[in-house]
Amino acid sequence: MDGSEFAIDFIGIVTNANYTGLDDFGRTDFLRIYDKAKKSKTIKSVTWKEVDFQSFVLHIQNDKISVLDTRHKTLCFEVSIPLIFSCGSLSEDGLVLFSFNIAPYQGNLSYRDLLILALPDEKSAEKLSEELNSKFARFAEQQLQTASRLVFFR
């Protein structure tokens, strides 16, 4: 596989969270969704002592991200770059959490999916953010080039 890999723990996916009126980058809003998902067992609840950074890998390619279960050799989650609205990290109770705010494939844009991962440390979160910024910029540049070619050939 081409691309970058990051050791992670796969916390889970919150599907169809209502984002109406929420701040995409707001710590309080994210934690409200995160805590509700933990209580309902939609995602797993782990402490910094329980995280396992050897069982899962986040694989970043030019057009998509994938979460792979390395022990079972299975794909847990995959999403193409254009469907990622935003992403970011925060530290909570010793855990470095990284979330991807993802649009559902169809339907109301007020409802989105949230992929939640744990990273080993803040330095890993910074490196992942830099890598993603590079992929987002490359994807946007490709889209502009495609649009320019379409306009030029008309």
Class by alpha and beta content: alpha+beta
Q: So, the CATH homologous superfamily?
A: Pleckstrin-homology domain (PH domain)/Phosphotyrosine-binding domain (PTB)
Number of helices, counting only DSSP H or I runs of 4 residues or more: 2
Percentage of residues in strands: 35-45%
Chain-averaged pLDDT: 85
Side-by-side strand order of the widest sheet: 4-3-2-1-7-6-5
The CATH class is identified as Mainly Beta
Largest sheet: 7 strands, antiparallel
Helix and strand run: EHEEEEEEH
Q: How would you sum up the global shape? A: globular
CATH architectural arrangement: Roll
CATH topology: PH-domain like
> What oligomerization state is this entry in?
single chain
Number of domains: 1
Distance between the termini: 37 Å
Residue stretches low in confidence (pLDDT < 50, at least 5 long) are: none
User: How many strands appear in the DSSP assignment?
Assistant: 7
Rg, alpha carbons: 16 Å
Task: Estimate the helix proportion, in percent.
Answer: 25-40%
Task: Please tell me about this protein's structure.
This protein is globular. A hairpin with a 4-residue loop joins strand 3 (64-69) and strand 4. The model has no long low-confidence stretch (mean pLDDT 85). It has helices at 27-39, 122-152, and strands spanning 4-18, 56-60, 64-69, 74-80, 84-92, 95-102, 111-119. It contains 2 helices and 7 strands. It has one domain (4-152): PH-domain like (Roll), CATH 2.30.29. The chain starts with a strand and ends with a helix.
